[in-house]
Amino acid sequence: xxxxxxxxxxxxxxxxxxxxxxxxxxxxxxxxxxxxxxxxxxxxxxxxxxxxxxxxxxxxxxxxxxxxxxxxxxxxxxxxxxxxxxxxxxxxxxxxxxxxxxxxxxxxxxxxxxxxxxxxxxxxxxxxxxxxxxxxxxxxxxxxxxxxxxxxxxxxxxxxxxxxxxxxxxxxxxxxxxxxxxxxxxxxxxxxxxxxxxxxxxxxxxxxxxxxxxxxxxxxxxxxxxxxxxxxxxxxxxxxxxxxxxxxxxxxxxxxxxxxxxxxxxxxxxxxxxxxxxxxxxxxxxxxxxxxxxxxxxxxxxxxxxxxxxxxxxxxxxxxxxxxxxxxxxxxxxxxxxxxxxxxxxxxxxxxxxxxxxxxxxxxxxxxxxxxxxxxxxxxxxxxxxxxxxxxxxxxxxxxxxxxxxxxxxxxxxxxxxxxxxxxxxxxxxxxxxxxxxxxxxxxxxxxxxxxxxxxxxxxxxxxxxxxxxxxxxxxxxxxxxxxxxxxxxxxxxxxxxxxxxxxxxxxxxxxxxxxxxxxxxxxxxx
Length: 527
What we know:
The protein is an alpha/beta fold. The protein folds into 4 domains: 5-174, 3-Layer(aba) Sandwich (Rossmann fold), CATH 3.40.50; 179-240, Helicase, Ruva Protein, domain 3, CATH 1.10.8; 245-357, Zinc Finger, Delta Prime, domain 3 (Up-down Bundle); 370-527, GMP Synthetase, Chain A, domain 3 (2-Layer Sandwich). It has 24 helices and 11 strands. It has a 5-stranded parallel sheet with strand order 2-3-4-1-5, with helices on one face. Strand 2 (89-93), helix 5 and strand 3 (120-125) form a beta-alpha-beta unit. The termini are far apart.
């Protein structure tokens, strides 16, 4: 019967384990020096060698002819452990044997001396799946096991294991295997299997495996079945269901050009070719991550796994995109991926992501029309020039400092009465205050509760807070307010105060307001 590659090429010695020197060297030294612990905890992500090292350790402690901390692999004990005929080495799947009764059975068996070996070894895989009762049942035995018992616990989620268990084990952390090491191992396997593999294909498979050697060998197994004896990068992409790098570069270019239509057409093409949208979203996140690293690191090449020509094209895109846009794209794609995993329609969610990605940061989609873009650019230049021009005359509050415009005599009481008589409320005044608060946070407090009235070419501000008019004495703030009003209304207004505290009372209410125009307060200026 055919044996899959990850079983056929499972390491038999510590020296064969790839990418885990912090584990293998320590274990070999302990075995050579006779400093064997009674319980070990192996933790790390999937496919990094936890089960493999557990089996090697179980052979090393029982080997009849150990060599430099490694098992010989040839004695009857080593061969028996490999083929499963030695019953003193027990491998337990805690996912399906996680009850109290299972652990009680284990405790009873542990009291018996081993039949064929020096140590009875219990390898408990996915130990975090044990119930609380099972952990409690294991605790005493784990703390004071018989002299002939060795426990090896393996888990991918160490945070789920009780602290009482952790404190009784010698812990080893397995790291994700580097892509270069995985690619080298894949090339070695292909050489032994008489299969030709391109280096770029091996690197791509290593990148897809995400640090897991078992996943990489499983993918290689599928590629061998799909190929004709020569594994190329294209074979790996088709086997793994990946989008071609050209599609990722094309999608990124659509984002840079704000071309949502082109982005959606590319999605449609990929969808018709049976590309999974969630996987495409994940690949795009990885691509933008690469752009982010290129933008922020001096030497990102040592982290990014890709062919040289792909790296150059991606680097050009990274240098052409602002870092803020790249980070924004990653955030939007991660939100879309999360919604896909929660059950949303993947194609629609990807198309919605396309529209958001191809929109500006404020969320308004851009229009791919050269004439309109030219007109918008022209209008932006005009607005910028207007902002830089000196503002027309205001009606500023009296200030001891020098004003931008020479003050003139304030209108008479009759003129102000006429202004107020024709005044109408300004409905967009709250919008003016909201826009101004972005320029200065104190605006919101100073102008809260204020009102404004339009009369001719004046805007009269009415407020019972002195700080409101203190702020209007600031020439920069006053000019910014006039510019904001001009942008919102399309008209240019002078600013004035609706009422003054020192105006004399009169029978006519309007006259009362007019007479409040004294020397203190905002003076009228000519525009």
